[in-house]
Amino acid sequence: MTNIGAAASDIERRSWLPMVSLFFAQVLMSFNVAALPVSIGGMVDDFDVAPTTVGTTIVVYGLAVAALVMLGGKLGRRVGWVTIFRAVVISFGASAVLMIVSPSVGWAIAGQALAGASAAVIVPSLVALIAENYHGDQQATAIGSLGSARAISGVSAFFLGGSLGTLVGWRPVFGIVVALAVIVFAFSFTLRSDRGDRTVEIDVVAAIFIGAAIVLLTLGFNNLNSWGVFFADPKAPFDLLGVSPAPVMILAGLVLGQTFVLWTRQRVRADRVPLVDLTVLGSSRERAAVYAMFVVVALEAALNFTVPLYVQIVQGRTAFDTALAMMPFNLTVFVTAMLVVRFYKRYSPRVIGTFSFVLTTTALTWLAYVVNNNWETLPTILGLIVFGIGQGALVTLVFNVLVTAAPTRAAGDVGSIRGTTQNLASAVGTAVVGALLVTILGFTVASAVTAHPRIPDSLIDQVDLDNVNFVSNDALRETLARTDASPEQVDAAVEINEDVRLRTLQFGLLFLAGVSATAIIPATRLPNYRRNEIPDPSEI
C-alpha cells in the first residue's frame, strides 16, 4: 500500500469536469450493452432473422471486451491514456453509426465487434485516468461514480430504448450512444494530459494465451445450458465422444489461463515487460479484493438472470414489469455506490466489506423465504433493497481497494484485471445459476408428478421430462392439450408447475446466499486502513 492515510488537507482538489468524461464513458459502454436486449425484437423484424442470430451481437461484444482488455491496458501505456482514450471513443461512436445504418445483421454484428474492441481499451483507461486526475477522497468518489453509472445505465436504457423502440424503431436507440460518445469526447479535453511510453513492450504470446483462455471460458460457461453441462445436448455444435463442448472449453480455458500465468512469471524473471503486472495481486489483500469482485458481479448477474426468468417466462409478464421488479435493487445500487465513500473516513475496507457480504447473504436468505408469485410484496422489495445496499457498497469498495494498492503506472493493469474479472464473473454467474435452476426443476418435477395421485403413468409417458424447463401456466396448458389429459389432470399439472417453480426459485436464492457467505471470511483479509490514497503519477 502506498501513502495510506494521507491527510485530505494535503491533497490538491481538482475540478470535477474531467470526471464528466469518465462517468459518461462508463455510461456509454453500459448503455450500449443494456440497449442490445431491448433492440432484439426490432432487429429480428428488420433483418428477418432468428432471435438467436441477433443475440450474436451481444455475444460478440462481450467476447471482444474479454479477449482484448489486457492488450488494451498495455496499448494505453504505450500510446498514452488520453490519446488512446479519445481514439477509441471515436471508434465506439462509429460502431453505433454502423448499427444505425446496418442493412443486415452481419453489419450489426460487425458494429458490436468494433464496440467491444473499443471498450477493451476504455475499461483500463477509466482506471488509469482516474489515477492520474484524482486522489484521496475525490478518487474514491470517482470510483464510486463508475459503479453508479453501470446501475443507472441499465434502467435508462430500458425505458429510453423501450420507448423509442415502440414509437420509432430500434435504430434511434443507438443514436443516444452516438450522442454519449460526442459528450465523452468533448469533455476528454479536460483530462490531464499524459505521454505514452514507446519503450513499453507488448507481449503478443501472452495476449494470445489470455485472449484464447477468456474466449473459451466465456463460451463454455455461457453455453452450459444449451450445449449440456456434461453430456452433449442435441443443440450442441459438436461433441467429443458424447461429451458436451461446453465443459471441454472451460477446461481448455483454465489450462490456457495457467499457461498465461506461467509465461508471465517467466518474462518477469527474465527482466522483460509482462502483458499485465501480476504484482498488483501480490498480497492476500488484493487477491481477497479480486475474489470479492468476482462474487459481487456473479451474484448481480445471477439475480439479473433469475428475476427476468421468473417474471417474464414463469409469470408471463412484460419486460416493463421486469424493470419495475428490479427497480428497488437497481436504484439502491446506484445510490449506495455513490454514498458509501462517505464511510471511508470512519470504517476500513475490511469492516465495510465484511458487513456488506453479511447484508447480501442475509438479504438473499430472506428473499428465499418470503418470495412468492408476486414480486411487488413489501417483504420482497425490502429484500431487494437490502441486497442492493450490500452490492452497491461492494462494487465501489473492492474496485477502490485495487486502485489504491497499485502505483499509478500499474493503474491500467488494475483496469484490465477488473474488466477480465467482471466479464468472467458475469458469464459464470448467469450460466451456473441457469444450469442449477434447470437441474433442480427437472428433479423436482420428476419427483412431484410421479408422486401425485392424479397424474397417471400414461400421461407422464406423453410428456418429455428429459428436457424440463421453466414455462408459464398457459404454455403448459397448450402442451397438455396435445395429450389425452383430462381437465382435472391439467389442473393438477398446473398446480404442480406453480409449486415446483417457486420451490426451485427459493432453492436458487438459497444457493446464491451460500455463495455470498463464502466471501465473508475472505473479506476479513481486505485492508484495515481507513483513508486511502493512490500516489501522484509524478512519484512513480
Automatic annotation (TrEMBL):
Localization in the cell: Cell membrane
Principal place of residence: membrane
Entry annotated with the keyword Disulfide bond: no
GO cellular component: a single term: plasma membrane
Domain Major facilitator superfamily (MFS) profile: 18-531
Keywords: Membrane, Transmembrane, Transmembrane helix, Transport
Lineage of the organism: Bacteria, Bacillati, Actinomycetota, Actinomycetes, Mycobacteriales
Bilayer topology term: Multi-pass membrane protein
Keyword Metal-binding: no
InterPro entries recorded: MFS, MFS_dom, MFS_trans_sf
GO molecular function per UniProt: transmembrane transporter activity
Name by which UniProt lists this protein: Putative major facilitator superfamily transporter
Organism, as annotated: Gordonia soli NBRC 108243
SUPFAM superfamilies to which the protein is assigned, alphabetical: MFS general substrate transporter (SSF103473)
Membrane-spanning residues: 20-40, 52-72, 79-101, 107-130, 142-161, 173-191, 203-221, 241-263, 288-311, 323-344, 351-369, 381-403, 424-449, 505-524
